[in-house]
Design a protein that fits this description.
Layout: H1 13-34, E1 44-48, E2 54-58, H2 71-100, E3 112-113, H3 124-130, E4 136-140, E5 146-150, E6 160-163, E7 175-176, E8 181-183, E9 190-191, E10 197-199, E11 208-214, E12 217-222
Antiparallel strand pairs: 1-2, 3-12, 4-5, 5-6, 6-11, 7-8, 8-9, 9-10, 11-12
Length: about 240
């Protein structure tokens, strides 16, 4: 604002008043923003919350201080919100987790019930009605591994099963009926009809599992004693 001189050379009083008013307004605004109290202004007050925020109010114009949640309240609300969201997510996750956990249904005599391709318990009667003597077909066995059930010549199920996982690199080994061997399609390892390794690169025989009947169902239990094919301790124990 340019200086305004009166006719006698003195600064115009009206200009002085306007300049002082402008400076006063600017000073009041600056102090309010930065949290300073302005001396001589009883109608203005500045409050600092627990969280460090500055709240400026006009005490005479507004009857009460505006509500500003302090840090403790906000922490509590955040905790409640996160807790409720966490419970919902956990509730949704349970069915998906359960889907990947193998079922471990057993029988009255103990052991794990063998499962067919549909995930149903294998029954002795049902299995023998569809599998002939000399048959070696897969069921889901211990730990979910593919396991061969063997049908003997007298049309009963053999008292041991064979884990179908090749001991070389873990391929599932199919039964070759024409050659009466298990022949791995990955690297050519071969096992005889009892699962004993007869050709590498597989270093070990197929793992064994006990097979028994309970309440008409086929049950599997771990084989922990001597391997009858090699007369050695079981390597899979």
């Amino acid at each position: 604002m340019p200086l305004d001189y009166s006719r006698d050379g003195r600064i115009n009083t009206a200009w002085q008043r306007a300049s002082m008013k402008t400076a006063f307004v600017l000073a009041t605004f600056f102090c309010g923003v930065h949290g300073f109290l302005v001396p001589g202004i009883p109608s203005a007050s500045v409050a600092r919350t627990n969280s460090g925020r500055i709240v400026t109010k006009m005490a005479e114009a507004v009857g009460e201080e505006p509500f500003v949640p302090d840090m403790d309240r906000r922490k509590l609300m955040n905790t409640i919100l996160l807790g409720s969201v966490g419970l919902n997510v956990a509730g949704l996750a349970v069915p998906y987790i359960a889907f990947f956990v193998p079922r471990t249904g057993g029988g009255a005599g103990g052991g794990l019930a063998a499962k067919d391709a549909l995930g149903d318990d294998v029954t002795v009667q049902g299995w023998l009605s569809t599998h002939q003597a000399g048959d070696r077909s897969l069921v889901q066995g211990l730990k979910g591994d593919a396991t061969y059930l063997i049908v003997k010549e007298d049309k009963t199920i053999e008292n041991y099963g064979l884990n179908a996982v090749c001991t070389h690199l873990g391929c599932v080994v199919p039964w070759n009926k024409a050659e009466s061997k298990f022949i791995c399609p990955c690297h050519g390892s071969q096992y005889d009809k009892t699962g004993k390794v007869v050709r590498g690169p597989a270093p070990l025989s197929l793992a064994l599992a006990h097979v028994k009947e309970s309440d008409g169902k086929v049950l599997l239990t771990p084989w922990t004693e001597t391997d009858f094919r090699t007369d050695t301790a079981p390597w899979w124990k």
